[in-house]
Every structure is written in C-alpha cells, then in structure tokens.
Amino acid sequence: MTNPISPISPEQLKEILTNPDTTQHEIEELIERDSNPNLNPFNSNLKVKSQAINSNIDDEWFNEVARKYRQQKYQEKINKGFSGVKIVSEGDSWFQFPFLLKDVIDWLSDDYAIWSLDAAGDTLENMTSAPNTNKIIDVITNKNPDVFLISGGGNDMFTNGLFNTLINEFDPDIDRLPEKYLNGAFDDFVKRIMDIFKKLFTDLLRIFPDLKIVCHGYDYIIPRESLSGGFVRNSLIQMGINDEELQIKIMRVVIDRLNDAQIDLVSRFPNRVFHVDCRKAVGVGREDWFDEIHPKNDGFESVADRFKTVINRII
Predict the structure, then answer these.
(1) Residues 234, 236, 237, CA angle at the centre, nearest 5°?
(2) For the chain, how far is it from start to end, CA to CA, in angstroms?
(3) Angle separating helix axes 59-79 and 10-17, nearest 10 degrees
(4) Arithmetic mean of pLDDT, 62-76
(5) What is the pLDDT of residues 129-183, one digit of tens each?
(6) What is the pLDDT of residue 20?
(7) What whole-number distance in Å separates Cα of residue 235 and Cα of residue 38?
(8) Bridge partners of 202?
(9) Are strands 273-276 and 147-151 parallel, antiparallel or unpaired?
C-alpha cells in the first residue's frame, strides 16, 4: 500500500479507497475529518493527511468516488444473479459519509443491492429540485427497485444560519420548558420540509404505483464540541442558551417534532410510504457519536437495523 506520508495522486487515492482489500485502519492513515470550525459541519469535510496531493480533492470528489464505487458494487452484485431486494437511495451524510464511517447505506448494502445517489452535505430541497427529481425518476425507471430510500431535511435546517431564526433567545422565565424555544418560524420550516417530502412521494407514486418508499427521522443529536467544531452547540449559545442540559432538551424537542410530522405525513400514504424511527437507536452518550450529528459505526449499524426491520416487513 502507498505510504501515507509519500506524495500521492488523486487516482492512486481512489484506487486505495475503492479496493475491497483496503482496511479501515489503512483508510484512516490516509484521510481524516478536517476540524476547521468554519467548514460546513454537515459535509464530510474529509482531507488527505499527506500534503503532497492534488488540491482538487474536496468533498464533492469524495462523494463522487464513493457513489461510483457503490454503483459499481451494485452492478457486480446484479451481474452475479442477485435475487434479493433492490433499492435506490438518495440522501445526506447519514446515507453517505464517504469511507471514514460505515454509514446506513454501507451497512444495508451487506443485505441488499443498493444503487446510491447519496451525497454528504446535500439538502432535501436540492435533492428534490426538478433536475434531481428527474434523475431519481430516470434511475428508478432503469433499475426497477423494490424500495426507494430517502434521507433529508437535517441539513436544510442549518443552511445559511437558518436554525438561529427558528428558536427563541434564552429567557429565564421559560428555561425549563424546552418546547417554548421553538417559534413560529420553526413550525413553518417543518411544514415546508413535509411539503417537499409530500410532493416527492406524490410524484414518484404517480409514476411508480407499486414502489415502496422509506424515509426516516434522525436520532437525538447531542450539542457539544466535536470534530465539526460544535456547530449546533454554538448556534444555541449564540441565542444565549448556554446550559448543556437545556441544549440537549431543546434538540430532543426538535427531533421529536420532525419525526412526529413525518409519521403523520406517512400515514397519508398507507402501504406505500413508511417511516423508520431512529430515536434512541444510537445511544444517549457522547461516546456513541462521531460528532454532533453523525453516529459512530456501531450507531449507524443500529440505525441500519431499524431500516432492515421496516424493509423486511414491507417486501
């Protein structure tokens, strides 16, 4: 294997990352999470440890390499006569955190054939833009999957400082009532996200009436200093909410509201759209999380198990 302190080209790095014989330890010798707090924490923010490498390697490069590798593995599985459940997936970093973490789709790919369209840092609004919705439709038409998986909405909440407009500033009179910190703008945000999901579900089921769609809510994220710089925590502090316990309680309400809204939406598409409840799948300790918003590998495995339970029940 290439020595990580030696000069390495993008093509060499790609060959190493997509080699099934490359160990996780070898990958971690080559790449790491950039801890620069000014970067978007919802991207993978991967960087190469060696400084002697082409500067064109960025988040999109890692996303593209990981996608192409997954698609290649999908095709190899199909060519070998795979007769199990076929899936098309579109989502954010819970569905694709390239190479450094074994995310939900990585775990599910052990059991199913999955054609991945996922990208760390993607927003639901972008995934469902007209060009990308057309791409999803084209892929489903071509691959004829049993299930379509979608992961999104979390990044949308934190884009361009939006989150700070969704919560109220600290008020000593309501400091023990975390639900009071979510304002009307948060209600509007949840409605907008659910409207986006609803349109996507409606559009896909009109074209593919037998398709099963699986969406999910996130687990209870823990605001804290982390590899991403403590973005969620810092947003709350900017609103004067400094108490760690209150920060955690507020985010639990946020996650509950998003999950509950999605569960209500899914109920309007009986036997066609299904919700995976990921709450309490990862664990409540900081040691269970890679950073504020991404579980460690074991946590992602627990989340994937929740998906398997739903997928195996509906197929």
Answers:
(1) 60
(2) 42
(3) 40
(4) 94
(5) 999 999 999 999 999 999 999 999 999 998 888 999 999 999 998 878 999 999 9
(6) 83
(7) 13
(8) none
(9) unpaired
